[in-house]
Amino acid sequence: YALSGSMWNRRSLTWRVRSFPRASGLNTDTVRTLMQYALAAWGTVGGLEFREVEAGAAAEADILIDFSRAYHEDGYPFDGPGGTLAHAFFPGEHPISGDTHFDEEEAWTFGEDDGGGTDLFAVAVHEFGHALGLAHSSAPNSIMRPFYQGPAGEPSRYRLPPDDQEGLQQLYGKGPKTPKPRPSRKPLIPPPQPPRQPPGSPSEPGPDRCVGGFDAIANIRGEIFFFKGPWFWRLQPSGQLVSPRPAQLHRFWEGLPSTVQAIDAAYARPRDGRIMLFDGPRVWVFQDRQLESDSPWPLTKLGLPAGERVDAVFTWPQNGKTYLFRGSQYWRYDESARSLDPGYPKPLSLWEGAPPAPDDVISGNKGDTYFFKGSYYWRFDPGSVVAATDSPRPMGPEWLDCPSSSQDPPSNPKPRAPQSPGDCDCHCNIIA
Amino acid sequence: VQDPSAQDISLSVDWLTRYGYLPAPDPTQAQLQSQVLLRDAIQTMQRFAGLKETGFMDQQTMAMMRKPRCSLPDLVGAAGLVRRRRRR
Questions:
Q1: A405 touches chain B (CB under 8 A)
Q2: What is the rounded average pLDDT of the residues A290-301?
Q3: Closest to A190 in 3D by CA, of A156, A143, A149, A147
Q4: 3-state secondary structure of B60
Q5: Which of the pair, A130 or A248, is modelled with greater confidence?
Q6: Shortest alpha-carbon distance between residue B85 and chain A (Å)
Q7: Of all residues in chain B, what percent are helix, strand and coil, respectively (each to 5)?
Q8: Do B67 and A148 touch (CB under 8 A)?
Q9: What span, in angstroms and rounded, lies between the C-alpha atoms of B19 and A194?
Q10: What pLDDT does A385 receive?
Q11: Chain A residue with minimal CA distance to B15?
Q12: What is residue A348's three-state secondary structure?
């Protein structure tokens, strides 16, 4: 987090919405309620109290909220739809301190998914961070990142990311242990939605990414793809999910037959960037999103024994070779010779600390290697074949923008043993 | 890296200045940005935005500059520091 250098010297602040967006579909009650929830997100963390005041009150509100367009007499003109969305003034004694301005010409929305407009609640939480004294943060999951990151979710359940909580608490200390009462307004009801689309449309509800257990995970051109059944999520290099909702496999990977309902493993081939999706004994090869005409290939084309399949695949940047994992063993594939290296398979235990039969393995953008299994991940430093001491860790909070579970052990948790005894290679160590 | 157009460079200098990565123009003197200063500013912006630090106006960087965002600068302190130094 980053601090602006100013803060309020009191813990009880007043606010008022002076002007409302005329063009958006949000009514004044919805706008006020969203503002109240956005302020409450900060208030709960820092023990601050926010009170809405009426127009004409004895003293003007500390945080005066306006929806303005173009030049609006503060030196920060708005620029119409897109571009700049909003701004707020840091705390202080000037009349404009704490005031928060939204570009009226944005398509402000609430309760809609990406693409339908700009989520007013998400932007309001960000701007109120400024109004309370925080500057922009470069932390990947921070609400104080300067770029719009999509909807922030259900306002009544919203919790600030840890980076922002720490920033506010640096200024105002921690709130009381007993949470302050939540906003007293009636529950928000999102504005009417368009009629439901037929089954098979992108809006069909998908699985919960936060429970883990992915079929495949791959680093494709710097973005991490998480595959689960006929769905996948994309994590941008900035650490931001493209959307919290999964995309449908067959709407993205053009030419993939509908009979393929899950991917076992995936990787981007280093020599030409082709994307390889493993499905049982076959590999589907894509150039960008289009299926190559000569695919699928049998896995035997890579040199694997007939009838074999793989749990995980990744290319290690240290040697440019591709590793294929199955159960408690792995093969090494030489991309330039287009054949398996001799002497393989080798036991997976050579990757010290790695889980057996991983869901998948990737090389991160900074050269670390990550093994995933269930809802945990194991990190290996660049070039190392020994798991980092803090492994395994729960993957949801760090990879998928999921809340930390109270069941997550504080460090070095021991994931449960495989459900069926036959799956276990019976090495007795901390992770097996 | 494909060479960005003159318009892209102009827009990016404007963007980098507006959000605190380049010093604000001084109305009392003409200003010529050095290539090194511009590259440093782009690299700082890329680090802040979580992009690969190339120091060039690559496609990802330009795409990030076109994303909707908050109007406030990212590096208030750094820009202020540069201004103070010039005044002295």
A1: no
A2: 90
A3: A156
A4: helix
A5: A130
A6: 20
A7: 55, 0, 45
A8: yes
A9: 38
A10: 93
A11: A83
A12: helix
